[in-house]
Design a protein that fits this description.
This protein has helices at 11-24, 26-39, 57-62, 108-118, 124-127, 145-156, 169-175, 183-189, 192-195, 200-213, 217-225, 239-248, 262-277, 287-292, 295-304, 317-330, 340-344, 353-359, 369-373, 378-389, 394-404, 414-430, 438-449, 459-464, 468-476, 478-486, 489-496, 505-523; strands at residues 163-164, 198-199, 337-339, 375-377, 411-413, 456-458. It starts with 10 loop residues before the first helix and ends in a 56-residue tail after the last helix. Among the domains are: 138-215, Recoverin, domain 1 (Orthogonal Bundle), CATH 1.10.238.230; 230-317, Recoverin, domain 1; 330-490, EF-hand (Recoverin, domain 1, Orthogonal Bundle). 48% of the residues lie in helices and 3% in strands. 30% of the residues are buried. By secondary structure, it is mainly alpha-helical. The strands form three sheets. Strands 1-2 form a two-stranded antiparallel ribbon. It has a two-stranded antiparallel sheet with strand order 3-4. The chain has a two-stranded antiparallel sheet with strand order 5-6.
Length: 579
């Protein structure tokens, strides 16, 4: 035996020996005879009834009538003296003597047991468990696909040559049972962008396949917008859908003549969609994420609500107006990219330098500009501004947690908290305000958050805390920290626990800033950057919704599909010359 090899018992041989011993017991023989008698095929003659030399005549006679997978290998017992109490199996068995131990060969008795174990049992228990995972929606028996297709064909019959243009797709969407503003995805999914129209045959084939594979609105919407071979949506997939909203929604009619802002509005809405819906931060919206969100409900409301500003969660033009104006104030060279010095001027240098460095470290940004040139795009700024002004939402808590988690271990240590609080203390000292020692501040924050584990604060702890905004502002926003200090904690809790359809912090901020911007424009205040206001050919009665940037030369209009580079923008010097 090779050195180091451990001897192990041959368990199979011992099991074979014990099985043969059990099989030789008289009680076992009697039981098997009873079983074979019950399952024996009626009318089959018994064989070997008068053979007294065989200990189990009934066993041998009934063996051919048994199930082939269970007892075929048993056969007739071999002739043996009366003193032999251990039958050795069928005559074809390789064993030639009464010895039990020997080479590990398969005995007849072993084949019976192993064959019985391998025989598949009827899945009686599994059949009672209904299917519970439906990645493309739960199938519904009530959907009559042929009736839906017939209705679509009758709709196409009303169009010239049974072909529908983009203007006709609203009626087609209704025939499909979809909200009005699904017309764009329906048109493009059927290949309408290539020829400018869709034939009835091609559209019916596309929609029939969609109904057969997708069983709820989320799965259908993803199927219509996604690229072939994907089961998710990326940011570029939303551009044709949103371009159609810009072109046809009555609340955005004033933007038709200000086409240079189509791509900016579309970029803002796309970032807000991913900010709210894409909870995994993957950059890919799945059917499951879409089902858990309110996006499709807001898409349906586009048809009912003529005032786009009432849809504050995604589509509000006023919110876009505020975000874009704030970005334009910081983007001094107007290349649609801002660096750390530009961002530091936000809200009169309220953010700490260390936090700005973390934002530009790539912890919460996408794209290559941050790593290569130390700049963030307008798309990144949308995430920043919403997170900065409303630190109570799940995404904003994740945003700032990522920034404060320096080592990326999923928890905020006392060292990381002290790292950010040191700059707050220096800034308070420069303002002649006595700063609270870190130990005392730490006790307050731990009482505020109540972490589950001692010595660290996790993301779950902050999401469970109703005053996460106070926690974050304490460590990197000096202005809001002082505002919180002037309020008692009881009043902060009362504000956070107020019932009813209370406006979010972001909605309050956007409404206040929009009123200020409109008032400044109405008063005719000059631009700080020296540009003069040059009225665009937008309808005068909608001037309160007109962006200040529409009053000067800007970028070229996008294509018919609103082609947008969501991360990298480029503009020539000629595009931003003063008027």
């Amino acid at each position: 035996m090779p050195p180091g090899k451990v001897l192990q018992p041959v368990l199979k041989m011992k099991v074979d020996e014990l099985f043969l011993c059990w099989l030789s017991e008289s009680s076992t023989q009697t039981m098997l005879q009873d079983c074979l008698q019950r399952i024996k095929t009626p009318g089959r003659t018994e064989m070997g009834a008068g053979d007294a030399g065989q200990p189990g005549p009934l066993l041998a006679a009934a063996a051919p009538a048994c199930k082939p997978g269970v007892f075929d290998s048993l056969g007739a017992p071999s002739p043996a003296p009366a003193s032999a109490a251990l039958p050795l199996g069928a005559a074809t068995s390789p064993r030639s003597g009464p010895h039990v131990r020997g080479p590990p060969r398969r005995s007849a008795g072993t084949r019976v047991v192993q064959t019985k174990k391998e025989e598949p049992l009827p899945p009686a228990s599994s059949e009672s468990i209904p299917a519970f995972y439906f990645p493309r929606g739960r199938p519904r028996d009530t959907v009559n696909v042929d009736a839906v297709i017939a209705k679509i064909e009758r709709t196409f019959a009303q169009f010239p040559h049974e072909r529908a243009t983009m203007e006709d797709m609203g009626r087609v969407a209704k025939a499909c049972g979809c909200p009005l503003y699904w017309k764009g995805p329906l048109f493009y999914s059927a290949g309408g962008e290539r020829t400018g129209s869709v034939s009835a045959h091609k559209f019916v084939a596309m929609w029939r396949k969609t109904l057969q594979n997708c069983h709820d609105d989320a799965a259908k919407f993803v199927h219509l917008l996604m690229n072939p071979g994907c089961n998710y949506l990326v940011q570029e997939d939303f551009v044709p859908f949103l371009q159609d909203v810009v072109n046809t929604h009555p609340g955005l009619a004033f933007l038709k003549e200000a086409s240079e802002f189509h791509s900016r509005y579309i970029t803002t809405v796309i970032q807000r969609i991913f900010y709210t819906v894409n909870r995994s931060w993957s950059g890919r919206i799945t059917c499951a994420e879409l089902r858990r969100s309110t996006f499709l409900q807001n898409v349906a409301l586009l048809e009912e609500e003529a005032d786009i500003n009432q849809l504050t969660e995604y589509f509000s033009y006023e919110h876009f107006y505020v975000i874009y104006c704030k970005f334009w104030e910081l983007d001094t060279d107007h290349d649609l990219l801002i660096d750390s010095q530009d961002l530091a001027r936000h809200n009169d240098h309220a953010l700490s330098t260390k936090m700005i460095e973390r934002i530009f470290s790539g912890a919460v940004t996408r794209g290559r500009k941050v790593q290569k040139e130390g700049k963030i795009s307008y798309a990144d700024f949308v995430w920043f501004l919403i997170s900065e002004e409303d630190k109570k939402t799940p995404t904003s808590i994740e945003y700032w947690f990522r920034c404060m988690d320096l080592d990326g271990d999923g928890a905020l240590s006392m060292f990381e908290l002290e790292y950010f609080y040191e700059e707050q203390c220096r800034r308070l000292d420069s303002m002649a305000i006595e700063a609270l020692p870190f130990e005392d501040c730490l006790c307050q924050m731990l009482d505020l958050v109540k972490p589950q584990s001692e010595g660290k604060i996790t993301l779950h702890d902050l999401k469970s805390c109703k005053l996460a905004n106070v926690f974050f502002d304490t460590f990197f926003n000096i202005e809001k920290y002082l505002d919180h200090e002037q309020k008692e904690q009881v009043s902060l809790l009362r504000e956070s626990e107020s019932e009813g359809p209370e406006l979010s912090d972001w909605e309050k901020y956007a409404a206040e800033e929009y009123d200020i911007l409109v008032a400044e424009e109405a008063a005719g205040e000059p631009w700080e950057d020296g540009y003069e206001a040059e009225l665009s050919p937008v309808d005068q009665k909608l001037s309160v919704l007109r962006s200040p940037l529409a009053q000067r030369p800007f970028f070229e209009a996008p294509s018919a599909l609103g082609t947008v580079d969501l991360y990298e923008y480029a503009c020539d010097d000629a595009d931003v010359q003063p008027s």
